[in-house]
Amino acid sequence: MLNSTRVFFRQLEALRGIAALIVVIYHVGWSNPLYNIGIIRNGALMVDVFFVLSGFVMMHCYGEYFVKKDSIIIFMKSRFWRLYPLHLLMLGVFLLIEIAKYVAEFKFGIQSGSPAFSKSNSESFFYQIFLLHSLFQDHGSFNSPSWSISTEFYTYIFFALLMTFIHKIKQRYIIFICISAISLFTILSLGHKSLTFDYQDSIFRCLYGFFIGAFTYEVYKLILKRVQELHYKKSKFIFLTITLISLAYILAIKHDNYLEFLVPPLIGLFILLIILSPNNIINKALCLPVFLWLGKISYSIYMIHLAFIWFFSALMQVLMKAPKIEVENGDFVISISQFQGGTMIIVLLSSILFVSHFTYKYIEVKFR
Length: 368
Fold this sequence. Notes:
Layout: H1 10-27, H2 38-41, H3 46-62, H4 71-108, H5 122-129, H6 133-136, H7 147-165, H8 169-189, H9 202-226, H10 233-252, H11 263-276, H12 281-286, H13 289-296, H14 298-319, E1 324-326, E2 332-334, H15 338-367
Antiparallel strand pairs: 1-2
């Protein structure tokens, strides 16, 4: 299906792994030493990193593929078997969690954060089965991070249809930018003042980031076509530095405002700069074996982490009698010491990485 001679951007896969790890720590529900670090508090924006990376990689792998009538069907089969098996497995795991909550409530009088089957009910299960939950629900249910998988799946369908009928590169430039611009305008029109929203309307968040990534790839191809050897090391270094400083500013401070809308284009520019400068220190760091391994299992990390967080949180509340306290924005965290919180994060991450290695090997690879 794919051209095996295509360049494999290892650093981009590593970037996805780091983003997945940040999402895990962002979702941790207990007090810990990492709680107030800016990039952790802004961990929800890592999903937009996924969207931009996805648009870039889909264009790289499939941009010239849609030339036959059955291309869309084959492409969507590929995407389905890439995403769905692990989604279905985790849906089953969270169904068991709801059953366990029900037994704990009615047999032992143990109350959890939300009553069993209150959000994760039969209606939610139906939406989850067909990956429709991001389109028709306005609350988290079952494995809630899968909302982004739902939006990506239908974005893939739209992408495949678009690529089947649009083959001219100049037309793609215009269409990709227009889709991103229309998506951003729609987000603003719907009253969203920041990018960190999910479920209903989130398809526009995905389209915004995905087609910025797709546009970035077209720019990358244009640069390679026009310039055989890139000698502008000083210029690239300056642009890379400015991009990193801009990203660092947005990610280091909790804004919840319009600045977040700059993250996808900045991520696109960052991707462009690092792949055009393969010998810079950032590329060398991203290509370290540990980051490449994280990138390989990143989808598993993302999909299984909430179940582990739920289990560890329940364990602390039952065995350690740790209370929940309210923090800013109405969120709740389990109150334990910083030392205990840090220790539990190490154990949590170790557990997630260990299991992700095997879900990648026996679920992702097998069904792919």
